[in-house]
Amino acid sequence: MERRKELVGEGHRSFDALRRGETINRYTSEANRGWHEILNTDRQSYNTWTYTKQLPLIPIKEINGNSEIQQNPLY
Question: What is the pLDDT of residues 24-35, one digit of tens each?
Answer without folding.
Answer: 777 767 777 666
